[in-house]
């Protein structure tokens, strides 16, 4: 794409009218002044964020409505899923960086999961005060069971919307965006 396209959201007018449209990723801003590029780039960044956020909200609503999570909540499943990538366990603050839950809520959630026998707490090797949270065998089995159902749900909502090339591009873009955050100053 070599020209700037305008995307209109419902209730929004096209560029040049009283409510500005939004530039689409991949559009060219060649030949524009630095001030115009900064303005377009800012609008493009905001529009990109809005599109990503709204897509995530739409999908999360569908996933949360799916009857696949029992006997845990979708957020508890997220904790189990995150722990599958850390067989040695994670400290609470490490786990907290990976899930969308505040630390006090996560502490209570870990207590609930522990009372259900799905996770265990153990001392961190070489650190008497440190505690690691690990999946139990029962927690790992439940994560796999729910995970299979969740993958079917993911496929149901993503595959009709995106082809393989688009899914690969989405994965690459989201991975790049997420990993870049560590090197971007606050």
From TrEMBL:
PROSITE patterns: HTH_MARR_1, HTH_MARR_2. It comes from Sanguibacter biliveldensis. The keyword DNA-binding applies. GO terms for biological process: response to stress. This is MarR family winged helix-turn-helix transcriptional regulator. The keyword Oxidoreductase does not apply. SUPFAM superfamilies: Winged helix' DNA-binding domain. Keywords: DNA-binding, Transcription, Transcription regulation. It comes from the Bacteria. One of its GO terms (molecular function) is DNA binding. Residues 45-179 form the HTH marR-type domain.
């Amino acid at each position: 794409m070599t020209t700037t396209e305008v995307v209109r959201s419902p209730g929004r007018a096209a560029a040049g009218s009283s409510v500005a449209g939004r530039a689409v990723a991949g559009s060219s801003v060649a030949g524009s002044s630095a001030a115009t590029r900064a303005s377009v780039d800012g609008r493009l960044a905001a529009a990109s964020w809005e599109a990503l956020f709204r897509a995530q909200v739409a999908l999360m609503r569908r996933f949360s409505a799916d009857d696949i999570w029992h006997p845990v909540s979708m957020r508890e499943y997220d904790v189990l899923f995150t722990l599958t990538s850390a067989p040695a366990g994670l400290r609470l603050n490490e786990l907290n960086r990976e899930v969308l839950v505040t630390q006090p809520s996560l502490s209570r959630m870990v207590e609930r999961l522990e009372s259900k026998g799905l996770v265990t707490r153990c001392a961190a090797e070489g650190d008497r005060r440190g505690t690691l949270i690990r999946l139990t065998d029962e927690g790992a089995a439940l994560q796999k069971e729910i995970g299979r159902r969740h993958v079917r749900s993911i496929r149901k909502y993503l595959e009709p919307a995106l082809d393989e090339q688009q899914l690969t591009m989405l994965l690459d873009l989201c991975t790049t965006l997420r990993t870049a955050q560590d090197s971007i100053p606050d």
